[in-house]
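User: structure tokens for this one?
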Amino acid sequence: MISTAESRYNQWVREHYRFLLRSAWALTGSRVIAEDVVQDCFTSAWRFRNQLRDPGMARAWLFQIMRRHAFRHFDPAQHVPQALEQLGEEASHQHHDALDAQLDVVKALSRIAPIHREVLVLYYFDDMPTAQMAEALDIAPGTVLSRLARAREALKNALQPPVRPQDDIVSTASPAASVIPLRKRTP
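Assistant:
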């Protein structure tokens, strides 16, 4: 069977659209932006389809293109993406522990650096092997492993509630709480 450029492109869309959408959503924090990013990715992939040398590396190649488009849409001033805040409001009305745990992870992912977020998404959500991750991110396999270790630590820290010293709790509770009671001295 002879494969035309258009049929290969259609195959890419069928095989990789969901993967790219999940990854773009995780990187941008917005489904709407993710859909735009994936559309831009496939447009670029069609335009530069002759640059893919190894068809077996299509997923990594497409991820690399999508990643560039996602970072063009990334707004560093936006701390917690809007879509994640809306998801949090919807989830707060439902009292399901499993959903709350998933939401905590999604929110924690939004609080870590994009460089850490992308390795976690590729490794855990998309089950991409480290060799393919290295190709997709254009870094050495050892760098993938070190970023993954740092990303796990960053996610662990983002999942932990902020720790406040006891002094801060007392001093912020009320003005009366910071008053030291006077005792009468006994002779």
